Amino acid sequence: MTLSIYNTETGKKSIFQPLAEGQVKLYVCGITAYDYCHIGHARSTLVFDMIVRYLRYRGYQVTYVRNFTDIDDKIINRANEQHTTTKELANKFINAFHEDMAALGVTPPDIEPMATEHIDEIISMIETLIHNGYAYQQGSDVYYRVDRFKAYGRLSKRNIEDMKAGARISINEKKENPLDFALWKGSKPGEPSWDSPWGQGRPGWHIECSAMSRKYLGDTFDIHGGGKDLIFPHHENEIAQSEGATGKTFVKSWIHHGFVTIKDEKMSKSLGNFLTIREILKKYSAEVLRFFIFSSHYRSPLDFSATAMEQAETGLNRLYSCLAEIAKLPATGDPGKAQAAGKKNIKKINSLDQRFCQAMDNDFNTAQGLGHIFEVIKALNTILQSLPPIPAQADLELLRGAAKNIRELAAIMGLLSHDPLNFIAEKQKQILADLNLEPGAIERLIQQRDEARKEKNWARADELRNKLAEMNIEIKDGTEGTSWQVKLG
RNA sequence: GGCGGCGUAGCCAAGUGGCUAAGGCAGUGGUCUGCAAAACCAUUAUUCAUCGGUUCGACUCCGAUCGCCGCCUCCA
User: pLDDT tens for residues A224-265?
Assistant: First the structure.
C-alpha cells in the first residue's frame, strides 16, 4: 500500500516518498497571536493533527514543526489599542491557543518556534539574500527582488505580469517593483525592534517561516502545510526566500486545506461571522467538532451550521452506542456454540484495516474512512441483534476485537477516545444536570409505570412514559426489565 | 480583469474510465413490543449542473455554457 498526497504545486496526487527513508519532516504555518482562535484555525490544527497521527500510524518517524508569529503589524496595532506590549499580547494568545488545543486533544508539535526568538537566523538569511542579489536595502527596509527569482509564481500559478495588471497592490516608492515584499521593516519610534545591519527594525511576515523551517528541518524538507489562503503570497514568498538563499528545492510536497465557511462565506473578522473555538466547545464536545471536520475531505470547503453539528453528534453517538453494547457483553461465552455472525459480516469486519488505510492512503480521505467504519458498525449491530443469551465465544471475540480495532483507527482522527460506557454515562449525567433532573426521581416514575404495566393498566403506563419523554428520558422495555437513558444529542 | 476550485438523493458527503454511484442525517414500510423507544431489515439518484467531444465504455478525461466559492490586501 502506498500513500498518495495531493501536492498544490503540481496540482496532482502523487505517491509520497520521503527524502529520508521512514522519516517525514513537516512544517505547518501556525497562527498570528493577536486574538482568540476560530474554528477555521481548529480545522487547520485538526487536519494536520490527523495527518501526523496517520503518518505515525503508518510507521513514519515524523518531525512536526508549527510556528507562532509573535511580531507583526496586527499584533502591534492590537497591543497599542489594549495599552499593552506586543510580547504580553502575543503570550496571552499563545497561552489561549494552547488551552484550545488541549481542549481539542491536539497532539502538540515537536517544535513550536516563535519569530522573535529567531531574529539571528532571520537576519542571517536576509544577508545571504542580499549577497545573492535577491534582496536590496532601501533606507532601513530590506525588500525581496521578485523579478530576480525566475520561478516566482510557481506555487500559486500566476505570473508577475498578470499580477501587476491586477493593480490591487499599493504603490510603495521604495520598491523597485510593486510586487517586491518586505524582508525587514525599519521601525518607527516606540515600536518593538531589534538591532540589524540595516538599523532598528523587525522581520517581515514571510521570512520567519523560511528561517525557522531551515533551522529545524533543513534546506529541503518533505511537507509544508497551511490553509489555502496562505498559498499566495505567503508560501510563494517563502519559496522565493528559501530557494534564493539555499539554491535548493525548498519543499517536496505542499498541502493546503480548505476553509470553514458560514452560510457558504469564508469566516473573517471583517464579515463578523467567525466563531471561536471556545464558543464552539461550550456547545459541542471536541469529538463532535472532530467528527464534523473529518466527515468531509480536508481540501473541500466546509460549511459550519448548527444542523451539521447536530448531525455529527448523532453520528458519533451511534458509534459510541454500538461500542457500549459490546462492552456490556458477558466476559465469557459458550466455546462450543456455532457463531451467530454471518460470513459476509465477518469478512467486512476483518477487512476494515485494509479498507480504512486504502481510504487514508488516498490523500487522507477521512470521509471515506469514516464510511468504512460505519459499515462495520452496521455489521456489528446486526450480530449484536442476533446474539443468544449465552453467546458463542467466537462471536464475543469477534465483537471485542472489532471494537478495539475501530477505536484504534478512529484514534487517528482523535475520535472514540473515551471509554464507551463512561462516555454514555458521563453524557447522560451532564444532560441530567443541565435539565435539573434527579436519577432517583426518574427511577421512581419508572417503577410506578412498571406496576401499572403489571396490572395491564396501559393508559396509566403510557401517561407515565409520556411524562418521562417530556423530560427527555427514553424508556427501553427489555426482557430484564425497563432501562432508561437520556435522549442524546 | 488574471488565476484556482466546486456543482453527486430532502440535507451532508465519498467516488484513483469498466463490477450493485460508499457512508451519515432525515423520511417511509416491516421485525421486536401491550403500544412505544432503541437496534435491525427493506426502501429513497436508470442518474452525477447543462450541452457537446474523446473512448468499445465517463460521475471520473477534453471543450463550451450556466451557477456558486476562494485567492490576487491581513487571513487557517
Answer: 999 999 999 999 999 999 999 999 999 999 999 999 998 878
Nucleic strand B near CB of residue A14 (< 7 Å): no
Query: What's the CA gap between A312 and A294, in Å, rounded?
Result: 10
Contact between A324 and A420 under an 8 Å Cβ cutoff? The reply is yes
**Distance between the alpha carbon (CA) of A301 and the C1' atom of B48, Å:** 19
Q: Any idea which nucleotide's C1' is nearest the CA of A313?
A: B25
Which grid coordinates belong to A225? 502545510
- Say whether the CB atom of A303 is under 7 angstroms from strand B: yes
Residue A230 near residue A209, CB atoms below 8 Å: no
Q: A152-156, A294-298, A426-430, A464-468: which range is least confident on average?
A: A426-430
- Residue A161, classed as helix, strand or coil, is helix
Query: What is the residue whose three cell numbers read 519610534?
Result: A189
What is the dotted CATH code of the domain comprising A19-280?
3.40.50.620
How far apart are alpha carbons A374 and A234 in whole angstroms?
39
What's the full length of chain A, in residues?
Answer: 489
Query: Does at least one atom of strand B sit less than 7 Å from the CB of A229?
Result: yes
The Å distance, CA of A294 to C1' of B20, is 27
Q: Which residue is nearest to nucleotide B75 (CA to C1')?
A: A229
Q: CB of A135 within 8 A of CB of A144?
A: yes
Spans of all domains in chain A = 19-280, 309-419, 437-486
Mean pLDDT computed over every residue of chain A: 92
Strand B nucleotides where any atom sits below 7 Å of a protein CB? 1-6, 11-16, 22-26, 33-41, 68-76
Q: Specify the nucleotide whose C1' lies closest to residue A319 (CA).
A: B24
Strand B contact with A66 (CB < 7 A) = no
Nucleotide nearest to A161 (CA to C1'): B2
Is the minimum distance from the CB of A408 to strand B below 7 Å? no
- For the A309-419 domain, the top CATH level (class) is mainly alpha
pLDDT digits (tens, 9 = 90+) for A372-396: 999 999 999 999 988 888 899 999 9
How far, in Å, CA of A179 to CA of A165, rounded? 11
Closest residue (CA to C1') to nucleotide B25 in the complex = A311
Q: List the single range of A27-36, A290-299, A331-340 with lowest mean pLDDT.
A: A331-340
Q: All 3 cell numbers of residue A298?
A: 480536508
Q: Give the other-Cβ count within 10 Å of A237's Cβ.
A: 26
